[in-house]
Amino acid sequence: RAVGEIPAISIVDMRRSMGQILSQTLIEKIEKTAKNGNQTFLFVPKKGFASRVQCGDCGYIFVCPNCDVPMVYHKGEGILKCHYCGHIEPLPSTCPACGSSNLKKGGVGTERVESEVSKLFPGLRIKRMDREEIRSISSIEETLNKIARLDVDIVVGTKMITKGLDFPKVALVGIIDADHSLGMPDFRADERTFQLLSQVGGRAGRGVSGEVVIQTMEPDNSVIKSVISGNIDEFYNFEIERRKALQYPPFKELILITVEANDPNSAKLYAEKVRDTISGGPFELLGPVESPIFKLLSKYRMQILLKCDILDRAIDFLEMNLTQSKLDFNPIDFLKIDVQPYSF
Fold first, then answer.
1. At 39, which helix (H) or strand (E)?
2. Residue 186 lies in a domain
3. Per residue in 20-78, pLDDT tens?
4. What is the torsional sign of CA 184, 190, 193, 199?
5. What is residue 33's three-state secondary structure?
6. How far apart are CA 106 and CA 216, in angstroms?
7. Distance of CA 47 to the CA centre of its chain
8. Residue 89 lies inside a defined structural domain of this protein
9. CA 75 to chain centre
10. Angle at CA of residue 259, ends 257 and 265, nearest 5°
11. Which of 23, 99, 182, 261 is the 20 to 30 A CA-CA neighbour of 267?
């Protein structure tokens, strides 16, 4: 790094945390940091107060009617919101399935961490940085100026605080849930986790002695260990061998075909037709399977992944075969083809 010293990194095993959001270790370090006149950044992967609301009696989860995902609870506005399509509805007082009023709020978002920190440190000045709180260029500038003037003691934020920020008085970075991105259905999940944790940790120690506390349920995970050691070569060697064994980039080129339809049966039927039409092409074909989010924006989605040796040959083959005459439906209306997909 160009500025400051590499911060010391420590791990907190949260497997026996009994639902704690902040470990005792992190709480003590925040208190010490504030007493020394320095600042703390707390990174939280998700917005909102809770990532889901669930009935404590029958288990019903409040899911977006347009997307196959739980809605996020925003305490400040008293609403449930889908962060994919923007659907909003008020938080009900009872479960629509069984009528119980025993509604539980699960998962941790920036609002919940902000609330918890405010209770633990009532005398400290806390600022939240996420897309719900920071909605304009002027609000970003105002917040960054406050941090620079030392008018903020603790910043609670999402990816907005992970890179590009250089504040010399940030002595502590706490990563609330280091495991969030490890479980993503994406072959790049480990790479992205390593990158994210390294970037957010790099906000500490740019002008004063810095420290990073990583809260995790997987302290023995190889990605977490590589972040602690700071050994980029170790992580690269492990990751490249894994991708070679699974034949993922850079050893193969990828094409993702997503089939969308208004009902699940049509989506599956069209996806099978696509598979049958392009079987025998110059690629390895995987699928069709349901997309990680099966229903999105009121569309049901199936996906087919192609692993290619020569990308141009695969593209030419698809152009010749994914036609209305061969598929018996218009591909423009139902297919999305993503060459070298960044996410799944």
1. strand 39-43
2. yes
3. 899 999 999 999 999 999 999 999 988 888 888 999 999 999 999 999 899 999 988 89
4. negative
5. helix
6. 17
7. 10
8. no
9. 21
10. 145
11. 182
In contact, 87 and 62? CB cutoff 8 Å: no
Distance separating alpha carbons of residues 3 and 6, to the nearest angstrom: 9
> According to the model, what pLDDT value does residue 3 have?
53
pLDDT digit string (tens) for 7-28?
888 999 988 877 789 999 999 9
Length of the chain: 344
pLDDT above 60 (res 211): yes
Calpha distance 227→214 (Å, rounded): 10
For residue 253, give Cα distances in angstroms to 41, 43, 210, 248, 305: 38, 33, 40, 7, 10
Q: In the predicted model, what is the mean pLDDT of the chain?
A: 91
| Contact by Cβ (8 Å): 301, 262 | no
Q: Which of 191, 222, 242 is the last residue of a domain?
A: 242
For residue 244, is pLDDT > 90? yes
- Tokens at 284, concatenated: 């390895």
Q: Which residue has the tokens 């500490």?
A: 204
Q: State whether 332 and 219 are in the same domain.
A: no
Q: Taking Cα atoms as reference points, which of 6, 18, 26, 8 lies closest to residue 215? A: 26
Query: What pTM value is reported for the model?
Result: 0.85
pLDDT tops 60 at residue 329? yes
Separation between Cα atoms, residue 263 and residue 281, nearest integer Å: 28
Within a domain: residue 326? Answer: yes
By CB neighbour count within 10 A (0-12 exposed, 13-18 middle, 19+ buried), where does 37 fall? exposed
- Return the SS3 of 334: helix
Domain hosting 36: range is 8-48+107-242
